[in-house]
Amino acid sequence: MLLSERYREVLDYFSKNMPMPKTELKYNDPFGLLVAVMLSAQCTDKRVNTITPVLLKVFPDAKTMSEARHDEVLELIKSCSYPNTKAKHLIAMSKMIMEKYGGKVPDDPEALKLLPGVGRKTANVVASVAYNKPVIAVDTHVFRVSLRLGLAGNAKTPLSVERQLEKNIPPELRHMAHHWLILHGRYVCKARKPLCDECGLKKVCKYFATKKFKIG
Fold it and tell me: Is the whole model's pTM more than 0.70, yes or no?
């Protein structure tokens, strides 16, 4: 199967079976999303969704967060992973948004990456989800699913996968493709026990073809 055909099959499948994908992180505005994504590093969305409502009720925007004390933020996020570092980054990020962007979360991925505690993945998530920018964030799910389906080949890094996906996925579909691949990896193409028998993409999946060959 040609790579273009593989992409067409995968995108058509998701378009029909998951027409309105969205993040499972709860948020009300770009600042809330940015906070949630920063907290989600090495932490589940479920856990983050229990933290952000309380945190953002006390510090709902960049101004209030920038004026917070470290111990105040730490107390509210202590149940997530690396709370000390994340508290420090949240405050520093908020201060930069106030000083450099007038309190508004920037929509450009390159500008987002300049914020303390914001890496490429986080920047792309916010740009894609909050502003529908044509970028794809590659987390562990997107990385795994892309390799298994054969959408990315010989990729050793998230950046390599990102570049291959963006080369082959039309700009208008990229913000949805991000969610398609994450949700498929989270609930079907799981890391340890992928639900291949339940997967509607197994006919085009390189991983399934190899697995089937080994079993047979």
Answer: yes
